[in-house]
Amino acid sequence: MIEFxxxxxxxxxxxxxxxxxxxxxxxxxxxxxxxxNEAAFRAMGPLGLLGITAKSEYGGSEMGCxxxxxxxxxxxxxxxxxxxxxxxxxxxxxxxxxxxxxxxQKKRYLPxxxxxxxxxxxxxxxxGAGSDALGLATKAVKKGNKYILTGTKTFITxxxxxxxxxxxxxxxxxxxxxSTFIVEKTFPGFRLGKRLHKMGMRxxxxxxxxxxxxxxxxxxxxxxENDSVAHMMKxxxxxxxxISGISLGIAGATLDYSLTYAQERTQFGKPIASFQMxxxxxxxxxxxxxxxxxxxxxxxxxxxxxxxxxxxxxKSKLFTAKMATxxxxxxxxxxxxxxxxxxxxxxRYMRDAKLMEIxxxxxxxxxxxxxxxxxxxx
Length: 378
Description:
- The protein has helices spanning 6-33, 38-43, 65-78, 80-100, 103-115, 229-264, 276-304, 310-335, 346-355, 363-377, and strands at residues 120-123, 139-143, 146-157, 164-170, 178-184, 190-195, 206-217, 221-222, 266-267, 270-271.
- By secondary structure, it is of the alpha+beta class.
- The chain folds into three domains: 6-118, Acyl-CoA dehydrogenase/oxidase, N-terminal domain (Butyryl-Coa Dehydrogenase, subunit A, domain 1, Orthogonal Bundle); 121-222, Butyryl-CoA Dehydrogenase, subunit A, domain 2; 229-377, Butyryl-CoA Dehydrogenase, subunit A, domain 3.
- Strands 1-4-5-8 form a four-stranded mixed beta sheet, with helices on one face.
- The longest helix is centred in the middle third of the chain and has 36 residues, at 229-264.
- The model has no long low-confidence stretch (mean pLDDT 97).
């Protein structure tokens, strides 16, 4: 069992209740229609979830990586799509700004993001640079009191609905000459590119972002020019730990549904839960989920104590992403033909889980990070 503090246990029960009432009933609909549960998303503001890692002076809850992961797991059990949008807002945008922005920038942007008045996103991935996070082509050139951004971002979670984006762009000749900018959707030269239609996570709006000589005030540069590689890596680490919570949530939802179904469904005159092959899949599902929880919350606890080693997030994400996909596939197998039908949620769990093996760094990239750490130690 994972030991949580009193505040963390209260958070867990509060978020679970909210997710059951506000997210789960809409999950199938927004998946089918490629919609967005905006009402529930904005309702997370008064609950303190949208600024879960931010200081109270900006309206935040002053909690840490563990708390954010608990929120991801409980929300992810009910609706992984909405939880992915929540992660893009609360970690990729709010936490990023809270950790790296100036006091003036924090005062200007964080309160509205934390109440839910504004929705946030982050622009890193580009059409020609996916796994190569430093291979950005989007450029920013300083002209007078503005930076002019030119380029395209893709696979941007919350792209169609966000008001504010944290955007990475190249500001020098070398690969590490990357800077961070706060871009509002109303800035001249900014526009949404095509909306992207996905296999899973369909209730999390995704699009391209286009910067056509986009004008960004100089005061919206985060930190100094060319110093954002550290920003990027630091936020990727907490992103990978917390996104692992979504994988835990998907696996938990799959296990719950499969257990209920296996006890109710009969074949050859008895519940299929009495068949050893079904029991094997259920037992593996439960064991792997619990192993994943132990790994992820140990990583989150280490992160909150100041450990920023990149393999914390990489190991968490690699294990849980694989685990959630296998769990969902096993859930489909337990349900048989019914598992392949949209009237049961396990097929949605499988489609949602697959993204966990791709987004925030592919499984292959996670293995490279882990191997580099091992070889460095050797």
